[in-house]
Design brief:
Blueprint (H helix, E strand, L loop, with lengths): L4 H6 L7 E4 L3 E5 L9 E5 L11 H22 L3 E6 L12 E6 L18 H15 L3
Antiparallel strand pairs: 1-2, 2-3, 3-5, 4-5
């Protein structure tokens, strides 16, 4: 897509420290990493969000994420990884990208970046679950 930075990386118009690429997916280092080794995994095809990802790209995309989740600890002596996706809100580039971030105990990253809260009641929790079950029948 014209103007998309990630599409321009795929096309070779913008530089990137490429980690992996094949005909469907690509991985490259984030230019402003949380920690060194922070990698972005994208479909080569322009897809704005996870909800819009064609089914035939699901396995290649998440297969690469899984491989990187194994490789990053080996390559960088990390203790684990954080995997994250933003869909529209906080998505800096409107091209689906999955963050695979090296993690170490005491690295300063504090779990999720937003406040967490409890449901006001078990009833409210079950009502929310019921709404999601109903919506799943339509998507």
């Amino acid at each position: 897509m014209e103007g998309c930075s990630f599409c321009r990386i795929v096309a070779g118009e913008l530089p990137a420290a490429r980690v992996y690429e094949d005909e469907k997916v690509m991985a490259f280092l984030d230019h402003r990493p949380l920690f060194f080794g922070h990698t972005l995994v994208i479909p080569r095809q322009h897809v704005p969000t996870l909800a819009e990802l064609p089914g035939d790209l699901l396995a290649p995309l998440f297969g690469l994420v899984q491989r990187l989740a194994r490789a990053i600890p080996l390559a960088l002596e990390a203790e684990g990884t954080f995997i994250g996706i933003n869909n529209r809100v906080s998505q800096s580039i409107p091209h689906l990208h999955i963050h695979v971030v090296p993690r170490r105990r005491g690295d300063g990253l504090r779990g999720f970046f937003w406040p967490r809260r409890r449901y006001p009641s078990e009833t409210a929790m079950e009502e929310t679950a019921a709404r999601l079950r109903a919506a799943l029948q339509h998507v």
